């Protein structure tokens, strides 16, 4: 879209007519990931200042929904799936299947551009990490996290998420 050549690239900087024109000119893809897995990845990447996972989670909870980092902000707040009609929603864990389909839909060769994705190994690893790290949290932290991500859990099918319990 021509307006994206300006310095302002956040949608909130444009009026409704411009937003509608921009969004209508793109194929919109939303990549979603279990919120608890996002927290684990953020912690492991050292993006929090805490030394333990439990302390990191408390830091996240204390920051609140709108004052925290993009790394752990709920997806519903970041991506506005109720306002933006995404053409595709791709769940982390199904990337190998979905990315090939998206490339073919875009007229590109589906398999040749993709790295080898081992979704089942990633899912198993995150299941194990989730069990370990979830056990470090207090009952209160677990309850607060479920509340913090309640809209993500309602909007997307994270049926095996530890936060869904």
Automatic annotation (TrEMBL):
GO biological process, one term: dermatan sulfate proteoglycan metabolic process
Membrane topology listed for this record: Single-pass type II membrane protein
One GO MF term attached to the UniProt entry: sulfotransferase activity
Any single Gene Ontology cellular-component annotation: Golgi membrane
Keywords associated with the record: Carbohydrate metabolism, Glycoprotein, Golgi apparatus, Membrane, Signal-anchor, Transferase, Transmembrane, Transmembrane helix
Protein family per UniProt: Belongs to the sulfotransferase 2 family.
Protein name: Carbohydrate sulfotransferase
Phylogenetic placement of the source organism: Eukaryota, Metazoa, Chordata, Craniata, Vertebrata
């Amino acid at each position: 879209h021509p307006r994206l050549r300006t310095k302002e690239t956040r949608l909130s900087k444009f009026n409704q007519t411009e937003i509608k024109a921009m969004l209508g000119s793109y194929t919109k893809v939303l990549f979603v990931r279990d919120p608890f897995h996002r927290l684990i990845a953020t912690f492991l990447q050292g993006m929090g200042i805490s030394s333990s996972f439990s302390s990191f989670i408390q830091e996240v909870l204390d920051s609140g929904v709108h004052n925290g980092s993009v790394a752990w902000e709920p997806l519903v707040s970041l991506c506005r799936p109720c306002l933006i009609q995404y053409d595709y929603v791709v769940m982390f864990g199904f990337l190998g299947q979905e990315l090939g389909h998206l490339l073919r839909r875009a007229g590109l060769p589906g398999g040749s551009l993709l790295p080898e994705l081992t979704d089942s190994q990633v899912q198993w690893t995150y299941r194990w990490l989730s069990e370990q790290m979830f056990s470090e949290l207090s009952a209160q932290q677990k309850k607060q996290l479920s509340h913090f991500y309640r809209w993500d859990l309602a909007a997307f099918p994270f049926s095996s998420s530890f936060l869904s319990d």
